[in-house]
Amino acid sequence: xxxxxxxxxxxxxxxxxxxxxxxxxxxxxxxxxxxxxxxxxxxxxxxxxxxxxxxxxxxxxxxxxxxxxxxxxxxxxxxxxxxxxxxxxxxxxxxxxxxxxxxxxxxxxxxxxxxxxxxxxxxxxxxxxxxxxxxxxxxxxxxxxxxxxxxxxxxxxxxxxxxxxxxxxxxxxxxxxxxxxxxxxxxxxxxxxxxxxxxxxxxx
Length: 204
Hints:
alpha/beta
């Protein structure tokens, strides 16, 4: 069972552990699957991110969020980090709230090794668009209350997706993920836990 988006907590080898700030870099050292990021409202230091990108696989979470000020600066930072990811061939994990069209146009304008839109709650059409551009979406239990989820149940799954908790790693995180995967397996009549692991590890 692999958690495709969690935050630093107890040690695990079964999660992609991401940060929202470069200030958390020291908390990542124990995890084999780790991703350094910087979100709006947190410390962004491009020199730290670039040094990370030179030696690591993942960058993130990064992105844009309409709940924070200075949209222009958010997109400028996003583009700067994507330039780094493009240069060093990193896989990027995204956080996105609002400004969907501009966000996707920015992401699609770069040649990325791969990308994951975590905590995805967008439309079925956007889900397909991300997949067609070589990206993956990751669904947390929050997705169950979205229109996307209803559509997926009605139409079936067109493209693979990942699952996550978006919580700190630990006992509770494992319980949440197990329950979420089991629920999805019953709904879609597939072994979602195995499918997610196969998708993630073939992707990286």
